[in-house]
UniProtKB/TrEMBL annotation:
Gene3D superfamilies: 1.10.287.130, Histidine kinase-like ATPase, C-terminal domain (3.30.565.10). The chain crosses the membrane at residues 33-51, 57-76, 88-105, 111-127, 134-152, 172-190. This is histidine kinase. InterPro entries: HATPase_C_sf, HATPase_dom, His_kinase_dom, HisK_dim/P_dom, HisK_dim/P_sf, Sig_transdc_His_kin-like_C. It catalyses: ATP + protein L-histidine = ADP + protein N-phospho-L-histidine. CDD domains: HisKA. It is an enzyme of class 2 (transferase). PANTHER family: HYBRID SIGNAL TRANSDUCTION HISTIDINE KINASE C (PTHR43547:SF2), TWO-COMPONENT HISTIDINE KINASE (PTHR43547).
Length: 473
């Protein structure tokens, strides 16, 4: 309880002191420092006034009373009017007059006047501008030397105001500690202010360094993202031009030439396949561009993967039949996931399209949808017995590696589809990965959160990493 009251008392004292000298931010540091020293000077003179009365120096005590009034006025102008520079100049002029008077009245060089010259010099040097420091230095050199010379030439101008030798000794013994204490307090205050400013500067520099590091990382991410976009545009210019030229050429032949039925059928099949491949490529590009411009913002609700797969296969079965690929389904009915229907369709369509592209004639693709109540996830897998991939390819396929690729029937791709799958899966709070063995096929896994009919539909916010935000933005 006692320490609690002590802390409250100290806090009250600190608050009162802040009100006296001015709170940080309200006044400039130079102004606040002048206020601090003014308060100590007021306290010093307040001690010297009764001391001089006690030592039998009433004239000097009256001069100090006038000095005290002047100091209080200066403090008020500085604290409440911000006129600390004016107060400093008045203080300098008055201090010279006071010390000169004290020198002549208080036993000259044998009294404490010369010691107070050192105190006034310290305060003036601490607060004045560099332009005026030489002025105060020269004055503080010339005045004491002039007074000492005057005393040496004509000692009678010095008045011994002390009643006894003991009074002079007492005056010196009290003046010197007061000067030392004032010097110590002023120096400590300036050092503390310097340490605070240095700590603030170091903290500011550290903050700037952290900001620069964040900016550097963001620039690297943006540079990488822009490089991917430039590569994509460059490859698109080539990979879209070729199939479009092939489609136009085939249509011109079919329009202008009379061909046998079997040749016409073959050209139409090739034309349809080229159109399918080009359509898949354009769909991926449009989805990616839309995400870059508008951002990827899923509308999370419950979706049945079974229905999505049926819609996709209604279009993709022609490609499978043309290559003689068998599509096997292992799907649990009635499974619902928390997802965005359009995004989920883009993901599954790309996985099936890739499987068809890299599976050879008469191969097999297996689609599986299984619910795992223990993990609260639905596992969707697309397995093929196609060409497979190396471990290095598996690590790279989801990282936006833009490169022209060809399927078993020369189907065109640029590697954008799987990268888009990864970006969309992240927004759906899911996971996607692949397992593959070269020459033996691949299997792609997509894990999404299950929808629980017994609970309110409250999908969580999609998880985004710093790189995801840079790529998506």
């Amino acid at each position: 309880m006692k320490s609690k009251y002590s802390r409250s008392f100290l806090a009250l004292l600190r608050g009162g002191w802040q009100e006296l000298v001015g709170k940080p931010g309200m006044l400039p540091n130079e102004n606040r420092s002048f206020n601090v020293v003014s308060l100590f000077m007021i306290a010093l003179v307040g001690i010297l006034i009764p001391l001089n009365f006690y030592l039998g120096l009433p004239v000097l005590a009256i001069v100090l009373i006038v000095t005290e009034i002047m100091l209080i006025t200066m403090f008020g102008l500085s604290r409440y009017r911000g006129l600390h520079r004016t107060g400093l100049h008045v203080y300098a002029g008055y201090s010279y007059l006071l010390v000169i008077f004290t020198y002549f009245y208080n036993d000259g060089s044998a009294g404490p006047a010369l010691y107070f010259f050192l105190l006034t010099y310290q305060l003036l040097i601490a607060f004045t501008s560099s332009r005026l420091q030489w002025v105060w230095t020269i004055l503080h050199f010339l005045l004491p030397v002039s007074l000492l010379a005057m005393e040496y030439v004509n000692p009678s101008v010095i008045y011994n105001g002390y009643d006894s030798r003991g009074a002079r000794f007492a005056d010196l013994m009290t003046s010197i500690p007061i000067i030392v204490i004032c010097t110590f307090v002023a120096a400590s205050y300036f050092r503390k202010r310097y340490e605070c400013e240095r700590a603030a500067a170091e903290e500011h520099a550290k903050h700037i360094e952290q900001q620069n590091e964040r900016i550097r990382l963001q620039n690297e991410l943006l540079t990488a993202a822009n490089r991917e976009k430039v590569e994509l545009i460059s490859i698109l210019g080539h990979d879209l031009r070729n199939p479009m030229n092939a489609i136009i050429g085939t249509l011109e032949i079919l329009t202008k030439e009379e061909l046998p039925p079997d040749v016409t059928k073959k050209l139409k099949e090739d034309l349809l396949m080229a159109a399918h491949n080009t359509s898949d490529l354009l769909n991926n590009v449009l989805a990616w561009v839309s995400g870059q411009i508008k951002g990827i913002h899923p509308l999370l609700t419950w979706v049945e993967p079974c229905s999505v797969i049926e819609r996709i296969l209604a279009v993709q079965r022609y490609m499978a039949e043309k290559k003689g690929i068998a599509i096997q389904l292992s799907i649990e009915k009635g499974i619902k996931v928390i997802s965005d229907a359009e995004m989920l369709e883009v993901i599954i369509r790309n996985l099936i399209s890739n499987a068809l592209k890299f599976t050879p004639q008469n191969g097999t693709i297996t689609l599986s949808v299984v619910a795992d109540a223990a993990t609260g996830q639905c596992m969707i897998s697309v397995r093929d017995d196609g060409v497979g991939m190396t471990d290095e390819d598996v690590k790279r396929i989801f990282n936006g590696h833009i490169q022209s690729t060809y399927g078993t029937e020369s189907e065109k791709g640029i590697g954008l589809g799987l990268f888009l799958c990864r970006e969309l899966t992240l927004r759906l709070n899911g996971e996607i990965w692949a397992e593959s063995e070269l020459g033996k096929g691949s299997v792609f896994f997509l894990a999404l959160p299950l929808y629980d009919n017994g609970k309110a539909n409250d999908p969580v916010t999609p998880r985004l990493t710093e790189r995801d935000e840079a790529v998506a933005g």
